[in-house]
Each structure stands twice: as C-alpha cells, then as structure tokens.
Amino acid sequence: MSVLIKDAVIVSQDEKRRIFKGSIYIEDGIIKEISEKGLAIEADFKISGNGKVVLPGLINTHTHIPMTLFRGYGDDMALEDWLKKRIWPAEARLDRNAVKAGTDLGLLEMILSGTTCYADMYFFEDTIAERTKKAGLRGFLGFSFLDFGTPEYKREELFSRCEDFIKRWINEKLITPVIAPHSSYTCSPETLMKCSELSKKYNLIIHTHCSETQQEIYDVKNRYGVRPLEQFERTGILSNRTLLAHCGWITKGEVKKIAKVGASVSHCPVSNMKLATGGYMPLPELIDEGANVSIGTDGAASNNTLDMFESMKFTALLHKHHRWDPCVAKAQQVLDMATIGGAKALGIDGKIGSIEEGKVADIIVVDFKKAHLTPIHDVVSHLVYAVRSSDVVATIVNGKVLMIDRNVLTLKEDEVLEFAQKEALRITSD
Amino acid sequence: MSVLIKDAVIVSQDEKRRIFKGSIYIEDGIIKEISEKGLAIEADFKISGNGKVVLPGLINTHTHIPMTLFRGYGDDMALEDWLKKRIWPAEARLDRNAVKAGTDLGLLEMILSGTTCYADMYFFEDTIAERTKKAGLRGFLGFSFLDFGTPEYKREELFSRCEDFIKRWINEKLITPVIAPHSSYTCSPETLMKCSELSKKYNLIIHTHCSETQQEIYDVKNRYGVRPLEQFERTGILSNRTLLAHCGWITKGEVKKIAKVGASVSHCPVSNMKLATGGYMPLPELIDEGANVSIGTDGAASNNTLDMFESMKFTALLHKHHRWDPCVAKAQQVLDMATIGGAKALGIDGKIGSIEEGKVADIIVVDFKKAHLTPIHDVVSHLVYAVRSSDVVATIVNGKVLMIDRNVLTLKEDEVLEFAQKEALRITSD
After folding, report:
1. Chain-chain contact of B324 with A278 (C-beta, under 8 angstroms)
2. Domain encompassing residue B30
3. Secondary structure of chain B: what % helix, strand, coil (to 5)?
4. Given an 8 Å threshold on Cβ–Cβ distance, is A317 in contact with B375?
5. How many C-beta neighbours within 10 Å does residue B81 have?
6. Chain B, 317-346: which have a CB under 8 Å from a chain A CB?
C-alpha cells in the first residue's frame, strides 16, 4: 500500500525540530520521500494537506486499555473506596469477552484521537494483542505480574504463561511483548528478580508503576527498608529498558539515578490529578538531568479518556502552575514527550517518533481550519494548547491508513460501542 | 419560532438536579413544556434526542473575546515579557475591524463548543455588542475602565461614553451592559467609586479582576494600604452585583466576606495555570461558606481556547490535586458552576441556567454516541470528565437554534476564519 500526503505543514520532530510545507510519500510502511517542492507520484491513497498539519502519531506510554469499560464508573471517591467498592469487584468478573469489548473500545478511541502506539499493562494480554493487531495499532503489551495472581492466571503459572505470551508475539510487526511487574508493593523481590531475568533473556521492556502514591512509599519502605526505586534497582529491574509510570513521589536523588541508568518515565498528569495521588513528578529536574520523559493517559477509569492531546495540555499547565513559572514545560518540550520521547521510552526512536525518510510511517494529520485553531501564529503552540483530538482527520500506522475523515477503517464503530456498553453493564451490575 | 427536542436524556440542573428521559417543547424563546411521556406537537425545528444529552447552555463568566486574535501569540513566556513584548503592542493597534474579527471568531468558537452566554470585558464593546446580537449569543458585555485610558477612549471621556453604551444596550434582549473597572491596581479609588455609582444607578453587574497575581496584592497594599478586596469594599464596588474574576490569592477572611455580601467569583483555572499566576482559588472554602462560584475561560491569549467543557475538567482536577483529595470538586458541583452558578453570577438564575418550564431556552445538545463517551455509567461524570466540546450538536439561545449538526446558522464560518487570520496578522506583525 502507498500513501501520499500532499502539501501539508509538516511538524517533523526531527533532530532540528524542523517545520515546513511539504509532501510525504509512504510505501510498504516506510516514509520513502519527503519533499518541500511537491511530489509527482501516484499512490493508492491520497490525502490533501491543504489547511492541515502532519505530525508523528502520538505515543501513549501508560494505559490499561480494557479499563475503558470503567470510564465514569465511580468518580470523586477516595482511592481505597473506589478500588474496593468499584474497580476490584468489577475486575474480579473480567473475562475474555469483557477484555475484548474494552480493548476494541480503547483502540477505537485511540485511533480517533491520533494515538498510533501505546504501552499497556493488564490481564488477558493475549486478547489485547489479537485485537490490537486486528485494529492495526502499534502495541507494547505488558504481561502483568501480581503476587496474588491475576484475574486470568494463578500466581504459580504466571512465568510460564508469560514466556508463552512472549514467544507468541515476539516476531509480530505491530505487537511487542513487555514484562509488566505491577509494582514494588504488589510484587515480591523474587518476582521482580525473575521478571528482570526474563527481560534480559528476550531483551524486552519492563513496564511498572513507580512511586505513584505516598502510601506506596511507606509500604515498600516498611516491608523492605528501601523506597520503590531502590527496590527496583536491587532486584535488577532498573535499566535502560525500564518504563516507570507516574514517579509522582520520587526524590532528587532518584531523578539522577533514573537519568544515569537511562530508564524512562511515563508521566500521567490527568490520572494523578483526578485520583489526587498528591506529590509531583519533577519534570524540570528530570529534563535538566537528561532523563527521558514520555506521557501516558493511564486507564480511562481514572482519566476518563485516552486523549493524548488533552494530556499534553495538562502536562504543560500542571508544571507551570506547580512552579509558578510559565516558562517550564514549553509546548515544544511537551510535544517531544508525546512523540519522540514516547518512542525512546519504548526503545524504538530509531524507527518511529519523527517524520524522516526511512522511518516507519506512524503519522497523523490534523485539520487546522477550525475556529479554535484560528488564527495560526504558532503551530506547535496550537498542537499542545488548542487542538482537540477530534481535529485529527487521518491516523496512519505502519503505512496503513486506519482512520480517514473520522471514519475508522479497521473497526466497526457501531458494533464496538454496543458491545462495550453491554459488557460494561454486565461486569459492573450486581 | 418553535423547537422540539424529542426523547433525549435531560440533565435539568433544576433544584433537585433531576436527570430523566423526556422531550422539550420551546416556543417564542421559552421552555413551554417538558414531558417524560413524549410530546405530540409539531414544531418549526425538530431535533431527535436519540443517544443525546440535553443540558443548559454553558455560561462563561470571564473572557475578553477579541483576544482570540492572540491565541498562541506568545506562550511559555514570563507574564511581564508577554504583556510588554506581545500583548500591549498588539492591543495598541486594535481598532474596530480587529475587534470585529476577533469577536466573530470567539462567537463562532463559543457557539460550536456549547457556550450560550458569556461575560466579557474589553474595549470597543459596542462593536462586541453588535456582533454578539447578530450571532445570537447572550452577552453580559463589560465597558472597561483603565486610568490610563483604553485603546478606544481617553480617560476623561470614559464615564460619558460608558453611559452612552449603557443607554444603547440596556433594553436589548440578548445584550446586557456591564460596568468593568479593570482592577484595583489599574483604577483609582475615584474611578472605582464612580463605577459603583453607575452600577447602582442602572442596577448593573460590576465585573472586575480580583487578586489574580501576588504582585497585584503587593501593589495595591503598597499604594492604598489595603488588599484588593478591601479596596473594592471601601469604594462601594463589592455587592451582590459584583463578579470577581480569578480570586487566586484571596484569604479565608475574604472568602467569608465574598459569601456574606453575595458577590460571585469567576474561576479561571486554565488561564491561571498557563500564566502560572500561582496562588490557589479556595474552592472548597468558598462552597462551604455558601459563596457563588462560576467558571470563566479568560481570553484565548492565555487559555488558549474558549472551551468551557475543558475548563470544567481543569476545575475538577486542579482542586482534587491541590487538596490531595479526589472527593473535592465533584462532577455535579463543577457542572453547577458552569450552568446555574454562572446564571446566578449574572443575576439571571431565575431566567436561565436550568431546564425548567417557563425558563428561557438557552440549551445545548450533546451527542453521547462516541467512543470516548462509551460506556455510560454516569451522565454527569461524562459531561465533566469526558465530553469534548466537539460533541455538542446543537446550541440554542433564547429559543433560537444557532448551531445544528456542527453547522453555525448565524455566522459564515469560512469568512470568519479568513477575516480573523488576516486581522490577527495585521495587528501583530512589525
């Protein structure tokens, strides 16, 4: 399949962060040619770039996709109440059907909102992988470890099941298996060490929660005498293949450690604010130390969307507000976090995250002919502060058009919505 | 003109906050009948409510509408730099044409995003009133006072010009004149006192900035020996007709004073966070004391949109985050601020702000058949945490349909966008 995007404004996110008018030719999944002069090539799929901005697809580095079924199911509640009365009872009823429904719903939402790649961690990850492959999104899918077992597997079978999962998906183009020990308070040191070995054996990303809440710090310290990051360090989890979600309660010393080892952070401002987990992810310090920071929405249960454009605006504004300084978290930095920063977090910044010849074509097109995007003084400012995800008019992954003019080509929208509503009510009703 | 909305979910925002399935019949601007059983009436305009949610139109209680021309013109800059290098030089070039362009752009954006009524304060307010009337929105339009004069009028002519403005618009249905002394640091005590007299004479709302920045507190205290709110009190500005924008730096004593006198606050979380004005508007304390709090976007120069749905989400999340408590700023409270709270701030809660028989029909319709609004566990949760303003499919003001299926009927979208782009470049280029 070949795709031609003609005469658009290209926000390349390349090394020089060049922005220019040009055309892009895509063939067999690869960006073959970018020209500022126009391209006289035929293609299977043509997209007019008139009034439009093209950028790398957004990369959501922390979510739990089937939890879209819990969107709006218990807001404004204390964290423990919410988990005990709503989320855990519903998760106990999870099965393959519910996961399929929630995954398709999340995929639909992501495709429609300009996300081309996501890092997940949940249960029934095989089902999530099958659905993701079918919908055509790029997924870094985390097989979850919890010491009390998961809704899918008993504790004692987790490692062998995980290895099966890895072998099943490791050679897929769109799917990459990920090792996902849930956290340092739900996984024993032995579990963490075995996860670390598995990650080394197959050279896979480890995706885990780190210092999301103050309680977690207390618990891990009480139990093991160290803070979560140190626990990850001494169990071999912490490396340049590690993706740490949240980091709302890390110290300045831990910032240096993360930067030094080359681990990545997934910042989830909307979820952190909504759950009121307190603390504050020290973005300026992480950037100053050279750490790689990306953005995640977290699950829709605590967001309540998977909207990366919204998460970009929250990222920028939260840090300005926290520091009483409008100059921190600049628009370009935040866009970097959501594109090339996400690619780096997943170890594939040589492949996606920017628009350059030879890279894989994970690309989105945004219509700028809108009242809320007029006038245009600064394209990057608009992408972070004014674009709504509904302005995305094309989503391309691996050179394949998944959505054009708000129509998703790989999922049947009506069926997905109906099935999700049905399954959501089934697993949440008494 | 008559309008019938058939079989929708109605979020009434009435005294009991009832939510029910029903139909609404509107005639001559008034909500004539609401029925849970369906209505067998013919109407000039029929809207199917299938899969849709109907709620009172959102009320934006603080903006500077022509500043949409400065959207994205200087972000991520220190406040003083931004004002001196960007905003003030551009404002010095303001004229009627630019204000017309910016106002039409803002009106278009508001109609498309479900805002039916707004409180403005800027210059060339006559032009703003003419355009607002033409577009069909409800405007509480503030004639601005600044001791160094405005881009429109010299200092010495402000009061007579304001009185002309009042007389010209006071009997209009959609337009209500408002007295807008800019602030306690840009208006002398004499100016404030004269504004207070004018407000009493015509029984008009006073709209002003109050305690937005820490610098403002210092300045007013140094110059007059009191804090801004006390300055308003002793110059007669503070009453139950006063709308105080921001209040990010008010004390607990000032919270009590605002509640006691019956003044209203316009909370602008997005602008406050983006400009990093610091401080924190004490929402839980204001609510506990019984003060009326509404929501404003502020101008698009510091937001960068006029999107009230987005501002609702920011309101809820900012306060949860600040208090480390997910139970503050509940969805229902935030929706109240954006609807009935806004109406109360403008002294017209007997007329708009809820959907009840006999009230004026300022109503919006939101399409809930969307991936990011599926499943539906809780309609109010979705309105605050998940709806995007692009989900609004009908905007009705005073019983007149201004927008249906994303088509604005009272403004020519293409012309508005083109004119705004042209005027924006004209007044910002060197």
Report:
1. yes
2. 2-56+361-408
3. 40, 25, 35
4. no
5. 12
6. 317-318, 320-321, 323-327, 329-331
Q: Is the domain of B32 the same as that of B99?
A: no
Beta bridge partners of A141: A120, A177
What is the spatial distance between Cα A307 and Cα A312, in angstroms, rounded to a whole number? 9
B85 vs chain A: nearest CA distance in angstroms? Answer: 15
The count of domains in chain B is: 2
Q: Residues B52, B85: one domain?
A: no
Provide the sign of the torsion angle of the four alpha carbons A290, A295, A299, A303, taken in this order.
positive
Q: What is the CATH number of the domain that holds B324?
A: 3.20.20.140
Same-domain pairing of A113 and A219: yes
Cis before A375? omega within 30? yes
- Contact state of A389 with B388 under an 8 Å Cβ cutoff: yes
Question: What is the rounded distance in angstroms from the CA atom of residue B48 to the CA atom of residue B39?
Answer: 12
Asked if A319 and A184 sit in the same domain, the reply is: yes
Query: Do residues B199 and B192 make contact, with C-beta atoms less than 8 angstroms apart?
Result: no
Q: Which residues of B touch A369 (CB under 8 A)?
A: 417
Q: What does each of the 430 residues of chain B score in pLDDT, given as a tens digit?
A: 899 999 999 999 999 999 999 999 999 999 999 999 889 899 999 999 999 999 999 999 999 999 999 999 999 999 889 989 999 899 999 999 999 999 999 999 999 999 999 999 999 999 999 999 999 999 999 999 999 999 999 999 999 999 999 999 999 999 999 999 999 999 999 999 999 999 999 999 999 999 999 999 999 999 999 999 999 999 999 999 999 999 999 999 999 999 999 999 999 999 999 999 998 999 999 999 999 999 999 999 999 999 999 999 999 999 999 999 999 999 999 999 999 999 999 999 999 999 999 999 999 999 999 999 999 999 999 999 999 999 999 999 999 999 999 999 999 999 999 999 999 999 998 6
CB of A160 less than 8 A from some CB of B: no
Mutate to test the interface with B, among A63, A82, A372 (most CBs of B within 10 A): A372
**Residue numbers in A near B416 (CB within 8 A):** 371
Across the interface, which of A305, A318, A413 has its CB nearest the CB of B386?
A305
CB pairs under 8 A between A and B: 207
Helices (H) and strands (E) in chain B, counts: 16, 17
User: Which ipTM did the prediction report?
Assistant: 0.98
The verdict on a CB contact (< 8 Å) between A375 and B420 is: yes
Q: With 0.95 as the threshold, say if the pTM is over it.
A: yes
Q: What are the structure tokens assigned to A417, written together?
A: 């919505």
| Spatial contact of B397 and B117, defined as CB atoms under 8 Å apart | yes
| Whether residue B165 is found in the same domain as residue B101 | yes
Q: Collect all residues with Cβ–Cβ distance below 8 Å to B414 and sequence separation of at least 6.
A: none
Cα(A366)–Cα(A50) distance, integer angstroms: 11
Partner A contacted by B424 (CB < 8 A): yes
